[in-house]
Inverse folding.
């Protein structure tokens, strides 16, 4: 069972059918391949939602399906909003983590790396992101939730794992995330996930970086801000891609 926002929905890991796959789908496939019994998996995540919206629209639905394993990820959309309510964020995490684990569900989540390496706006939300990480970690530790802290692994800051929108992982980023969670959950054969990617990232000179930043602002930041200014929800019309549990097929582990 997976609930959350765009990261859990799978943006920007696009499969051969043009649909979003993502780390949660990939993790489900790893688990299915590692066990004999049939695995059923649902993903209720919807892009652009803030944590309280995730709690209100997904959490109770997820509990009603009586999962054994659940990912709860959110808060980034709160952090990049004009005025994040950290008190409510803390209360929502504490409530969801506590209620889910009290039902015997194994719950896991992750903490983002420092966003300042990723795009020009990262340094403006760096402090907020650190507060979000502290809140999430404290709530998780209190409730016995498993935590993957990406800031502890240098590979998470390799730009080759990130999509050109500088917000979401690309297919390789989602693949590494799925392997990281499989390792966190104790499945053998995934210990290699934090190893550096072969070679070094291409060096980008100052003028090229400025040009890339401008291109990013025009094609990604501008449209995103424009939708916000006219109060158009970024995920308008989007519904959960896998709202009910479905049997997971097995793929090649390296796919």
């Amino acid at each position: 069972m997976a609930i959350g926002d765009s990261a859990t929905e799978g943006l920007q890991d696009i499969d051969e059918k043009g649909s979003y796959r993502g780390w949660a789908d990939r993790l489900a496939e790893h688990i299915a391949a590692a066990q004999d019994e049939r695995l059923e998996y649902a993903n209720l995540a919807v892009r652009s939602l803030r944590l309280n919206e995730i709690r209100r629209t997904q959490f109770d639905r997820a509990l009603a399906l009586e999962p054994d394993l659940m990912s709860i990820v959110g808060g980034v959309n709160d952090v990049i909003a004009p005025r994040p309510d950290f008190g409510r964020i803390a209360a929502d995490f504490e409530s969801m983590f506590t209620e889910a684990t009290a039902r015997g569900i194994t719950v896991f989540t992750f903490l983002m790396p420092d966003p300042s390496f990723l795009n020009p706006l990262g340094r403006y939300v760096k402090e907020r992101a650190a507060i979000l990480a502290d809140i999430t970690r404290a709530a998780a530790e209190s409730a016995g939730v498993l935590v993957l802290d990406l800031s502890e692994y240098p590979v998470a800051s390799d730009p080759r794992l990130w999509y050109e929108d500088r917000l979401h992982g690309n297919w390789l980023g989602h693949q590494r995330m799925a392997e990281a969670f499989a390792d966190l959950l104790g499945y053998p054969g995934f210990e290699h996930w934090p190893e550096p990617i072969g070679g070094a990232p291409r060096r980008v000179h100052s003028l090229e970086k400025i040009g890339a930043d401008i291109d990013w602002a025009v094609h990604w930041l501008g449209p995103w801000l424009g939708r916000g200014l006219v109060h158009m929800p970024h995920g308008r019309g989007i519904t959960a891609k896998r709202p009910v549990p479905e049997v997971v097929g097995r793929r090649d582990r390296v796919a």
About this structure: Residues 227-232 have pLDDT under 50 and may be disordered. Residues 111 and 145 are 12 Å apart (CA to CA). The first strand starts at residue 2 and ends at 3. The domain at 2-196+205-247 is CATH 3.40.50.1110 (Rossmann fold).
